[in-house]
Amino acid sequence: MSEVDPHSLEAVREVIKDVRFAMFTTQGQNGELMSRPMTTQQGDDQPGPYLWFFMSRSGDTVREFTRHAGVNVAYADPHRDSYASICGRAEVVEDMAKKKALWSVFTKAWFPGGLDDPDLALVRVDIESAEYWIVRESNVVQMFKMAKAAATGTTPSMGEHGTVRL
């Protein structure tokens, strides 16, 4: 991973770029938090502070964020020791050009009617804030830092942490 400004959205994109699945959290009817695995649609261009998803228009997730637009999208890549938590507002977007740009054969498995499937919803999450963690040290270095901290009664410095507010 390249070094980036810890307060930039680019740092968050660096964490999530190779993570295919995210936990998409909405607020249920009674205020409970509901999380579901979703595939982030990674287009060649990520021009703005957005995340894109295809979802079932008739599903609980769309129904929940239609009532309460605030959502959280969490990413984890334990192999790279990289994690991100993104807060934003979700909405269904009617944009056929964007649907076509993001469409893949894998999406067709969920929406056999293709781009014209009436249940296919293109969802955009407008990012409001994000937090991320990246540990760049090897496991050996991490273990050494934890052992040293335990022996000295200090807290180990374990990588990079940043918060982005838009």
SSE blueprint and pairings:
Layout lengths: L8 H8 L4 E7 L5 E7 L10 E7 L3 H8 L2 E8 L4 E12 L2 H7 L2 H6 L9 E15 L4 H14 L7 E6 L1
Antiparallel strand pairs: 1-2, 1-4, 3-6, 4-5, 5-6, 6-7
Features:
7-stranded antiparallel beta sheet; 166 residues; 5 helices; alpha+beta; elongated
**Cα separation of the termini:** 23 Å
Residue stretches low in confidence (pLDDT < 50, at least 5 long) are none
State the share of residues found in helices, binned by percent.
25-40%
- Count of runs of 4 or more consecutive helical residues: 5
Taken from the alpha-carbon principal axes, the silhouette is elongated
How many β-strand stretches?
7
Please state the structural category.
alpha+beta
Radius of gyration: 18 Å
Mean pLDDT: 86
Strand content: 35-45%
Order of helices and strands: HEEEHEEHHEHE
How does the major sheet shape up?
7 strands, antiparallel
Written description of the protein model:
By secondary structure, the protein is of the alpha+beta class. It is built from 5 helices and 7 strands, in the order αβββαββααβαβ. Strands 1, 2, 3, 4, 5, 6 and 7 form a 7-stranded antiparallel sheet that branches. The chain is elongated, with a radius of gyration of 18 Å.
